[in-house]
Amino acid sequence: MTSDGEWPTLTEATVRELARSKSYERGQTYYERGAVSDVVRRGETVRADVEGSQYQPYTVTIELDDTGVARTDCSCPYDHSGICKHRVAVLLTCIRDPESVREQPPVSTLIADADRETLEELLVGLAADRPEVANVIETRLTTMGDATTDTAVSVNTESIRRQVNHALPKPGKKGHTDAYAEAERMANELDELLEQARMAIEAGDGETALDVLAAITDELASGRWANLLPYDVPRVFEVIDDLSQAFIEAVLTAELTKSEHDDWEERLSEWDGQFDYYMGGESTLLAAADAAAQGWDDERVQQAMAGDLGEGDFWDDNDVWYSDDIVTARLSILDRENRIEEYLNLAAAAGQTRAFARMLVQEDRIEEAIDYAIERFSTPDAALELAKALRANDETQAALQVAEHGLTLDGYRKDTLAVWLRNRAASAGDRELALEAAITAFEASPSVSTFEAVAELAADDWGPIKADLLESLRTESSGGTRAAQVVEVFIREEEYDDAIELANRTERTSVIEPVVEAVIEERPQWVISTSKSQAEPIIEQGQHDSYRTAVRWLRRAGKAARAANDLNEWREYVETMRDEHYQKYKLRPMLDDLLEEF
């Protein structure tokens, strides 16, 4: 969202990028039938209800930033790639019917002028209705209330343990249809508890953070919950990883004696072994144990912070894979304590170019940051990260300059960088740069949405640019998901011969199927031949679970035969197949129904 509260740049092309084609189409249908209601925007957050297949409407949340959509969420169970149809419908409402969105002040604004008595009544009422709120209040007030003072804070570890036990899955949940939802619930509740430790760390109170983390870990390390959860829920692993990161920073923030350092190293190593069951043998807390052992007196750390090591010289052959995590925690602490030169020296010695550049921006050394990025960055992802940091500091032109340099780099997230720069440059009124970024985004990840984004920006220049883009698709060798995206562009532009040529080069149904559907009228003979080649192996091999798929292919062949006035020949083909495979009792009635249909 822009600083003056105006809507950021939102386009339908951007929504297409966020969603799979089917989700976009269904979301558009939901929008058109008026399924979206109660759309409210509070600051950078938009929430809405969308009527779906359940009795209760789904709740959609959209988080905005100055470049458009920052994050989306929906209460529906959709877990495939891209955003769901409900989120598409809400975004289309924001774009097409902005007047239907009710503007409301953020909660922070609502309570800004409220008196203490009113807020107390509100909080007590919430806690009475929701016990989990009472637990959070108890923990936060006990552990964080005096975190910024010099007095040691007493931690209510029993309250924390109760909340951990409430978060853990209970016996009898294994194999339950909601096992994944149970895992997500556990992860979310644990993350709220970890936030207590993070708050203490930010306040410089490492001792309190360690007490909170120890109470959490004591309950988790028993492992009695591990066999109750699926092993493929990323959020659970993320939370355990966050626990490790918090421990690293806590042991480096706390003022510990040599004996206490040794004790924490031992405890963390022991806990690490107890996590083996769920983590598949991967270390969980060894990084924190090493951080406890090193403290700040490690000789290499002291040399690096003093600037006595050259760039990248911090590392040696004995360093383990998690050593970089410890450096990251040290940099966070140095930043918090405003030890800027030590931060820059350590970042340079450890080869953390992104952290080095971010600190230059933070210190308002903008020209240095730009020069450093152009000289040292080698991936689009690094350029994107710094560009966002510059934009957050209201350095728009510097952000565009770094992002433009990123377009010249190859590697991870080039398409994401190009889309970000396209939207940001368009918002800044730099149409030429926005168009350059849009073309790069299409070339890096060709799709209907990136194609349409170029068209929007090209305006009167669209003709020759469009020809060049299509020619680039013809000359490249597309495979995998990229082929499926490319073929959708060909279909959109009615370049049917190119679409067929690409479909012929691949065996992927995701590529062949949309082409067949698109050219039934225009290329019926190809559709008939291709559909037969898809159906025949299924029937010949007796894949009875896939007979319906085979019949769908034959139905497409029938539609094409009708378009080509060859329906009698098609009927003879299907009848012959039915007679030759009469013993396949599941298939025979399906073919009879198909013949009756035509």
TrEMBL record:
Domain SWIM-type: 58-95
InterPro entries per record: Znf_SWIM (IPR007527)
Keywords, alphabetical: Coiled coil, Metal-binding, Zinc, Zinc-finger
Organism superkingdom: Archaea
Keyword Ribosomal protein: no
Single GO MF descriptor: zinc ion binding
Entry annotated with the keyword Cytoplasm: no
Segments forming a coiled coil: 176-203
Record field: transmembrane: none
Name of this chain's protein: SWIM-type domain-containing protein
Native source organism of the sequence: Natronorubrum bangense JCM 10635
Taxonomic lineage from the root: Archaea, Methanobacteriati, Methanobacteriota, Stenosarchaea group, Halobacteria
